[in-house]
Specification:
The protein has helices at residues 13-25, 43-46, 61-79, 84-87, 121-124, 143-156, 187-190, 248-261, 310-340, and strands at residues 5-9, 30-35, 89-98, 114-118, 132-141, 160-163, 178-181, 197-206, 214-217, 223-226, 231-234, 238-239, 271-280, 285-293, 296-304. The chain is of the alpha/beta class. Helix 1 packs across helix 9 and helix 3 (61-79) crosses helix 9. The protein is elongated and about 75 Å long. It binds flavin-adenine dinucleotide and 2-acetamido-2-deoxy-beta-D-glucopyranose (NAG) (2 copies). It comes from Salvator merianae (Argentine black and white tegu).
Length: 341
């Protein structure tokens, strides 16, 4: 096989997991992860890292289910190993509650999580404004720990990490055979993909070690996600808003909404505010592309646009992207072979 030089652009959960899958399936390649932000400064660092899918309207549901199932099973394996603590992965049980009974009482991902059931009348008593609820156990990544753990695994496999801002993917043409684009919201300027747009999320990270159960309102707006080091209180979904500075009034309304669901939170003292821009798109872009400029060609694999659910499907999409990279290498070999004849 050709010793291909591969660059992965992006060091959020998508770039790092994609790079790791590539380094495992193509151990003979030279691999570099290039990004202008690494942990703890990416959007992925802001995420609560809960494995609860977010629906992409233009990606087939069976596909989303497969990505979620693969991601869940992969992380459950890590969670059941001595690596769990270093990787920041835990199981967490809780409730998703609805003010109105949803059309789909049983979501497509119900058999991918553990112990999915409807909440009992006794459980619902805690939420007098809600009429229906689902109880289940899922996984949560402590995002900065998980990203750091992925970086460590990559370095062990011989990959290089490079801090650099890319203006145009063609800058990488002479140094790499294949470029994998995992640039998240950066894709808007980098690929000129105007389909990708930010959905701003503001969250509070608080110290409330007595809160062990997650609570999520089915509207997706208000949630309480306990983690190993802190509890994430959310949130907002603000379309086309690029503001990275926290808004104090928004923090107050998030806190009030969460206290309505979990009154014990009003005792919280220490509040840390974070903002991230979800790289939103109607479908995840996961495909090969060949760009031609004059006599030069650039082999690209895209893996971006994971919106509000990047953690939930990252491993499934990373595996698929690694397979696309493998197909590119086979193509490279065939064209070299032809050139020799
Ligand atoms: C408040 C909030 C809560 C969330 N909670 C959850 C959750 O509980 N569960 C879940 O599944 N998802 C959640 N998400 C969504 C999740 O965070 C995203 O889907 C995921 O982080 C996207 O990962 P990414 O790697 O594509 O992007 P990013 O983490 O943004 O990484 C992009 C990378 O590309 C690099 N880059 C971009 N442009 C360039 C350039 N021109 N040159 C060089 N490098 C470049 C950046 O430096 C960065 O390293 C949440 C998001 C937010 C904002
Ligand atoms: C994260 O950002 C801070 C502040 O800009 C910077 O000092 C730090 O070096 C960055 N960390 C990494 C790993 O890039
Ligand atoms: C990645 O793809 C997006 C969308 O096509 C594009 O906007 C962005 O410029 C690409 N990134 C790079 C580094 O080329």
């Amino acid at each position: 096989m050709v010793k291909a030089r591969i660059a992965v652009v992006g060091a959020g959960v998508i770039g790092l997991s994609t790079a790791l899958c590539i380094s495992e399936s193509l151990p003979d390649c030279s691999l570099t992860v290039i990004a202008d932000r690494f942990t703890p400064n990416t959007t992925s660092d802001v995420a609560a890292g809960m494995l609860i899918p977010h629906l992409y309207p233009d990606t087939p549901v069976y596909q989303q289910k497969q990505w979620f199932q693969e991601t869940f099973d992969h992380l459950l394996g890590i969670c059941n190993s001595p690596e769990a603590s270093a990787a920041g992965i835990q199981l967490v049980s809780g409730w998703q509650i609805f003010k109105m009974v949803p059309n789909e009482k049983i979501p497509f991902w119900s058999d991918a999580v553990l112990g999915f059931r409807f909440m009992t009348g006794k459980e619902m008593k805690k939420f007098p404004q809600h009429r229906f609820g689902q109880a289940f156990t899922t996984l949560k990544c402590n995002s900065p720990s998980y990203l750091l753990w992925l970086e460590e695994r990559l370095k062990e496999n011989g990959a290089h990490l490079q801090k650099r801002r890319i203006k145009d993917l063609w800058e990488l043409h002479s140094d790499y055979n294949i470029i994998v684009n995992c640039s998240g919201i950066g894709s808007r300027t980098l690929m000129n993909d105007l389909e990708i747009r930010p959905i701003r999320g503001q969250v509070l990270k608080v110290q409330a070690p007595w809160v062990k159960h997650f609570i999520r309102d089915g509207d997706g707006l208000t949630y309480i996600y306990p983690g190993v080091h802190d509890v994430t209180l959310g949130g907002t979904r603000q379309k086309d808003n690029w503001e990275l500075l926290p808004d104090p009034q928004t923090s107050k309304t998030i806190f009030d909404r969460c206290c309505t669901l979990e009154p014990s939170l009003s005792a919280v003292q220490d509040i840390n505010v974070k903002v991230g821009l979800r790289p939103s798109r109607s479908a995840v872009r996961l495909q090969k592309q060949t760009e031609v400029r004059g006599s030069k060609t650039l082999l690209l694999v895209h893996n971006y646009g994971h919106g509000g659910g990047g953690f939930s499907v990252h491993y499934g999409t990373a595996k698929k992207a690694a397979q696309l990279v493998k197909e590119c290498i086979v193509g490279l070999e065939m064209s070299r072979h032809k050139a020799k004849l």
